[in-house]
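Is iron/sulfur cluster placement plausible here? Inputs below.
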Amino acid sequence: MQSFSLYIHYPFCKKLCNYCDFYKKTISAGQSYEELEKGLQTHFNSVLSLIEEKGAPSLGSIDTLYLGGGTPSLWGEEGAEFLGEFLKTNGLEFSNGHEFTMEVDPGAWTESGLRSWHKLGVNRYSIGLQSLNSDFIEIMDRSHDVGESLKTLKYFKDAGCNYSVDLMLGLPYSVERKRKIREEIDMAMDYRPSHFSVYILKTRKNYPHNDVLPDDTFTSEEYLEVSEILKSYGFDHYEVSNFALPGKYSEHNQKYWRAQTVHALGPNATGFFMFSSNQAVRYQHRPSNTGYSKEELNESELKLEQVYLGLRTNSGLDTRTHFRSSQVTEIVKKWNGLGYVHKFESGQLVLSSKGYLMIDSLMDDLFRFELL
Ligand code: SF4
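Reply from A.M.:
I modeled the complex. Tokens:
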């Protein structure tokens, strides 16, 4: 038996934001959860079959669980009750010291709902603020307003919860309306979050505000400014898009970045299953509950993945296990001159915040060399 991590996808939202690429639907009045609940059981059975097919040890207790979406805080008491039963029926228990994170959107939760989730074992929350400026909240088509965001922050602060907030950068009209990201972060800090996830907006061709997006120079400066501000508040920039106070890193997300197994349930949810020391499978459940697609990763594909993931975090990449040291030394010297390297000691390479920003082109540089 092996303890494991699990992601569960709840696909409903109050309103669909105009930039969102996640699998989601608008919730209706009196929404029925029958299809979702049946689907979760079907998906769990598929995961069990996959484990058996690969001859891997059976599932033990849950180390980390992440309930994402969509807007899972809309699931309320009914969801907590269902999930409690679901875990029990399937013989699943939490490990000691587990981490159970739930995404919460401002204006999409009730106190009684959150109390039920807490009772079930939720001990970490991720709040979808995105911005604390009403102009930008409106431009993003979010369903909440800044008043609801502040009410949500106050609730979690007063309850003494461990929680993270999401912010988005590179928003439309940032230049024209002079977005002041420092003011937004200072405002959020009054409520003592322990973690920030900060994403740069990526848009599709048909995004309605493509012609008023800031240019790359603006967005890069904004990202580096956020990194400096959060570091000045004592946060570690521990992954490309994530900042945390010491001891408050996301355990669940670190499993992804270490290329460890994270199973997944829910429509379109993607799981990653390391079934031996050098083989893995990535699978994605179809939304219609008609099975899943999968991609097998062989040893060399896994190595590529490990290099990329290693460079994303402040644990860094052990370059000696992947590249010839003469090649790496030469390239790290060049990167260091450009300010992309935080640390390079005994072959362990950690990028700086500026390096994180350039990670894709740094990967291209690295992959000119053959992997060992
Ligand atoms: S609330 Fe989140 S998941 Fe729902 S549409 Fe907006 S960004 Fe997407």
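Short version: The first strand starts at residue 2 and ends at 10.
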